[in-house]
Amino acid sequence: MTTLASVSPTTPVAVPPARFGDLLASEWIKMRSVRSTPWTIGLTALFVLGFTAVATLADKSAGSGPADFLPFDAYPAAGYWTLMLVASSMGALTVVSEYSSGLIRTTTVAVPARGSVVLAKAAVTAALWTAVGTAVSTGSFLVSQAILAGHHAGVPITRPGVFRALVASALLAPVCALVGLGLGVLLRHAAGTMVTSVFTLLMLPTMFSESNRWSADIKHALVPAAWNRLVQTWQPDPGSLGYTATVPGSWLVYTLWPLITVALAILVVRRRDV
Questions:
Q1: How many Cβ atoms from other residues are within 10 Å of residue 48's Cβ?
Q2: What is the pLDDT of residue 151?
Q3: pLDDT in tens, 129-185
């Protein structure tokens, strides 16, 4: 006669909550697994460096000395506006691509702490674009110096204002990427986020001037105006430029825009259904 062995009920194994380091690793895997990411970053960097070379070669005053070198040669506006556009768009896609594909539901089921997920996305995005911005900014400076050295118009990095311009141009990419990420969480729609990012970062500053106080204050509170002031190596003339931005105020703009947008994104995502 066969005796049936008693089987004790299986005790469910408690799954420990995901650590923040695990979230960082997960977000990094998601980002690097997208094939378009390295291509987009590489092509953007080549475009900015190429535009720097063209702007430096086209500078008719390059042979007269280094006085008017920055920012027009090393950090041309068109090249860095392109960097702003790409960084903000890819920062937004970090979030809106998950909303459009439905992957965000899987993520929030695995990690109910939605604020931590957004914070991990922001940390990985900031690290990636800080590295990209540093490489592009340093490359722009070196490319312009290589061209200007032939005209004896090179500018050493120790010259007042030059290192600040390099750092400001390097941090422009992560600032815009984090703004795009925050807008992506708030809007959750790819087209709407892209349009809002382009309008906020690129089009809105052109609507204000420095002719009067209120218009100048709004313009100086925007990222492009802060970048323009930080890469400017000469002291502005208040008589000719009107109400000018300050260097500390421009660094504050750099800090507040990503901080506020990411903080709003974390606040909203905790209170909103996926």
A1: 27
A2: 66
A3: 999 999 999 999 999 888 887 766 667 777 878 899 999 999 999 999 999 999 999
**Tokens for 120?**
């991990």
In this structure, the number of other CB atoms found within 10 A of the CB of residue 130 comes to: 16
Which residues are CB-neighbours of 187 under 8 A, at least 6 positions away?
96, 193, 196
Instruction: Tell me the chain's radius of gyration from C-alpha atoms.
Output: 23
- Chain segment 24-34, per-residue pLDDT in tens: 888 888 888 88
Reported pTM: 0.85
**Average pLDDT value for residue range 44-67:** 76
Question: Quick check: 169 and 144 in contact, CB under 8 A?
Answer: no
143-155 pLDDT per residue, tens:
988 888 776 666 7
